[in-house]
Every structure is written in structure tokens, then in C-alpha cells.
Amino acid sequence: MNILGIETSCDETSAAVLCDGRVCSNVVSSQLCHSAFGGVVPELASREHERLIVSITDSAVTESNITKNEIDVIAATAGPGLIGAIMVGLCFAQGLAYALDIPFVPVNHIEAHIFSPFINDGTSHLEPDGAFVSLTVSGGHTLLSVVEQDLSYEVIGRTLDDAAGEAFDKTGKMLGLPYPAGPVIDKLAEKGDPAFHKFPRALTSQSQTSKSYLNNFDFSFSGLKTSVLTWLQKQTPEFIVLHLPDIAASIQWAIVSVLVEKTISAARARSIKAVSIAGGVSANSALRKAMKDSCDKEGIALYIPGTIYSTDNAAMIATLANVKLSRGMKTEHCYNVAPYASFAAGARKA
Ligand code: KG4
Ligand code: ZN
Is the pTM of this model over 0.85? Predict the structure, then answer.
């Protein structure tokens, strides 16, 4: 079965073809037009998707060595994300499915991230046998959930304010770094000292104010943002330039240490021996290393997507459609855009 996946929820235009469950192509175009604005401008994002969607889809189909008439199913992101951006991909995908007279599968973007460690490109993981704890960290979401074999989910923690990716991007902006700042901080931090300055870690065992951190799997990053801002205001520009790698490493560690601590305590609390990380921030090298070290210490299996599948891509959209179809999900012919969709249709309340 050949599945064409389409992803346009934010600032990546992407199309991918999955042939019998395996990735045959995954074309991603990242929009550069937002960097001057320090964040994604929704209207510009929609226009860029519209400009590129046909050529990106053509490239994905050509690279996969099939023709359009050999596509059996089309899947596209239906939410959550920017409404105008999603509508471009969703309308295009449904229109193409209608013209080819083939089924259409709407996909939840966050759920697709959760399954990204299991994208089959010949090098990837098989799914764990039982439940796993998923940390999903992107520009818009920070979620800890328990994912069951039957694809039902229990959200056990989420951010109370900023997402982890936002914490990287906004503190990076304070340092004068371009958007998105996450990968730039990651690179700078390679040469920096994470212990250079201790920024606060909210709702953790190290937090002075929180007495009930145990079994509290929620996150908060807005205090870190304020702390970085007020600390930077007390430093001279020369000091900041001189110590940029150390400051980047200190900010990065303040975010990463919280993500690791909460994920591991969630796995411990639920006696679950499998953990996965996904979403744009899962590309972070310090997070990958720290999570691996902690999982090894605890005897927990860790599932991580290849770095090209951490950030937004259509291979994960086609993969989730494939998983759902293989488990009996029905296809649809018409589906409305769902910009504020909760991350999983099958989510259970904790
Ligand atoms: O999943 P994604 O591509 O888009 C959303 O659905 O939001 O995630 C984008 C986020 C941005 O905040 C970006 O700064 C962050 O992922 N990111 C990183 C790294 N690569 C991307 N953050 C830290 N380290 C990285 N290497
Ligand atoms: Zn995403």
C-alpha cells in the first residue's frame, strides 16, 4: 500500500510517500521568511505553503518512484497548528484524494510526533511491546503521556505556560540569536559550561518553592524566561558576547534537566520500562544524551526518532496513518480543519 502524507501545520511544507510501511521519500522545505520577525508569521506561513505544496508533493512522488495513480491513500495534518497553514495542506490533500478517488485519513500532528521514533526507514525502532511514556516537546507543546498498545493515551503532565521549544526560542531571542533559536543554542552549548550559571528549574526536586513536586508531572518555563531576562540585564554586552556558549549551555541545561527528571519519575511512578522522546526539541543533543544516560541507569528502553524526524515532517503523518489503518481505523472523505485539536482523539483524562 502506498500512502502519501502531507504536513503544513506550521512553517515546514512537507510531503512523504510510505510504500508498504517504509519511507520511500520525505521532502521537507523549511520556511526562511520568518527569521526577520523572530517567530512564525501565520499569514506568511500559509502563503509559503500554497506556493510550495504542489512542487513538494511532486518531488516526494517522483523520489519514491511511483506515479500519482499508484497512491492508495492520502493523509494530512488536520490539527493542531496554525489554521491557515493547516487548511492549505488539508484542502490540497482532500482535493487530490477526491480527484484520484482514493481514501483520505486526517492525522493529529502531536500524535504523529509521538509515533515518529517508529518511522520505518530501515534504521528505526520497532514499537515497544507494552505501554510507554512519551515526552513530546515542540515549539507549541510539552506533554508527558502514557501511550497504551491500543493507541489510547493518558496525558499525565503538560506545560502550565510556555512550551520547551518556546523556552529555547524566546531565551535565544534575548541573546540576539535568530529564530528558531533551539538548534543554535544546541550548537553554541557544545563549547559551553552548563554549570556557568544556575537558572531556576520550576516544579522539580531542586525547586525551592514547590513542596509537592513528587508525582507532579507538569512543567513551567515562564519563570526561566524572566530569570534569563533579568540576569542578562545585569550583565554588560561584552560579558554576554564573551560567555555566549556558557550562557547557552546553562539555559539549555535548565530546560533539559527538568525534561529528563520529570520523564524518568513518570516512568518510575507507573513502573513502565519504555520511554520515548519526540518533537522538534527531541533533536537537542544534550536532551538525547542526558535521557539516554538516565534511562540506561534505570534499565529503561529509550526510543528516539532520527534527527530528521524530530522536527516537522510528512513521514510521521504517513506513518501514523499506516498504524491507524493497520489497526482498523476508518478513512474519511471530508474532514474539517481542527487548529485547536487536543493531541489525541483517544486521550483519556488522568
Ligand atoms: O516539532 P517542531 O518542528 O514544530 C512544532 O510543532 O512546534 O518543533 C520546533 C521547535 C522549535 O521551538 C525549535 O527551536 C526546536 O523545536 N528545536 C530545538 C532543536 N531543534 C529544533 N530545540 C533545541 N535543540 C534543537 N537541536
Ligand atoms: Zn511539530
Answer: yes
